[in-house]
Amino acid sequence: PNIDNQLKNDLIEFIEANESLMQNQANTSIIQYHPQACYTSRKLTEILVQEESQGFDCKIEDD
Fold first, then answer.
1. How many CA atoms lie within 13 A of 14 on its CB side?
2. Which domain of life is it from (predicted)?
């Protein structure tokens, strides 16, 4: 019975450590931004705002 308890304790410790590691990785992923993604997003927003302000939105009508 002592071996069973030790195995159970080892498994529980492994599961808890794994869950903690996964949570830390998830938190790290959330707070890290890729510089190129931020730059692309900012540039895309600038282009869309510029197009909107220049009246590039147009309506195409069929004759």
1. 6
2. Eukaryota
